[in-house]
């Protein structure tokens, strides 16, 4: 499996990554959401370089020009709720893509132990399409695996791109072990070394869903 860490090469992405991590700047929920979206836009652009193209003629006021166009049938999927702004960044660029949504949540047995449950899925047929699954934070990788399993009930995609903003090293290893290696690329903006006792990424940024949309009960 290909693992591509975009922050290994300097770009404006690092500025947005700094701002979503900053305990002070991330208090501005609107700015936090917009930075998730902007990172999604940058990642969509990077993923677009790996897609398949063919030339198509377009008529201009003065003649005809051949322009390479994406031929892959793309489905953008996200895991609710933290994934919504990140997903919107992808949709800004892949604006003709179909969309799929999965809800995954932690149900805690006690303060430290939890199970992950899938509660809702809405998806088009995925057969022979290019599936891009977005989730800003990948802590253990478990919710991503369950979301993918739920999406497979809607068909088998031709290729899978997994996109996160911050992943733990444990999650990166888990994704590499549980997704088809010959047809999966994992894209991220940072890989952090640790998880704490609550399975939150360290140093991470906190709870992306709460920062974007407010605290939940």
Question: Which key terms come to mind for this protein?
Answer:
single chain; 217 residues; alpha/beta; Rossmann fold; seven-stranded mixed β-sheet; three-stranded parallel β-sheet; globular
Spatial sequence of strands, sheet with the most strands: 1-11-9-7-4-5-6
Helix content: 25-40%
Count of individual helical segments: 6
Major sheet description: 7 strands, mixed
Note the overall shape: globular
CATH architecture grouping = 3-Layer(aba) Sandwich
The whole-number mean of residue pLDDT values reads 94
Question: Rg from C-alpha positions?
Answer: 18 Å
Distance between the termini: 38 Å
Number of strands: 14
Structure description:
The protein is α/β, with parallel strands linked by helices. It has a single domain, classed as Rossmann fold (3-Layer(aba) Sandwich), CATH 3.40.50.2020. The chain contains six helices and 14 strands. A hairpin with a 5-residue loop joins strand 5 (98-108) and strand 6. Helix 2 crosses helix 3. The relative contact order is 0.18.
Q: Briefly, what is this?
A:
The chain has 217 residues and is α/β, with parallel strands linked by helices.
């Amino acid at each position: 499996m290909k693992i591509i860490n975009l922050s290994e090469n300097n770009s404006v992405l690092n500025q947005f990554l700094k701002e979503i991590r900053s305990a002070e700047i991330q208090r501005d929920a609107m700015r936090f959401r917009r930075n998730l979206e902007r990172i999604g836009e940058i990642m969509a652009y990077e993923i677009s370089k790996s897609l398949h193209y063919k030339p198509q003629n377009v008529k201009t006021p003065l003649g005809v020009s051949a322009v390479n166009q994406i031929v892959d049938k793309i489905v953008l999927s996200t895991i609710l709720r933290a994934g919504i702004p990140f997903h919107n960044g992808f949709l800004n660029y892949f604006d003709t893509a179909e969309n799929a949504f999965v809800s995954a949540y932690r149900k805690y047995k006690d303060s430290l132990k939890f199970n992950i449950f899938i509660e809702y899925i809405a998806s088009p047929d995925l057969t022979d399409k290019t599936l891009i699954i977005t989730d800003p934070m990948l802590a253990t990788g478990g919710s991503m695996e369950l979301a993918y399993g739920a999406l497979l009930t809607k068909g088998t995609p031709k290729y899978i791109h997994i996109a996160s903003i911050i992943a733990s090293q444990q999650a990166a290893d888990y994704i590499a072990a549980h997704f088809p290696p010959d047809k999966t690329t994992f894209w991220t903006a940072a890989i952090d070394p640790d998880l704490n006792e609550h399975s939150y990424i360290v140093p991470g940024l906190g709870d992306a869903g709460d920062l974007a949309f407010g605290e939940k009960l």
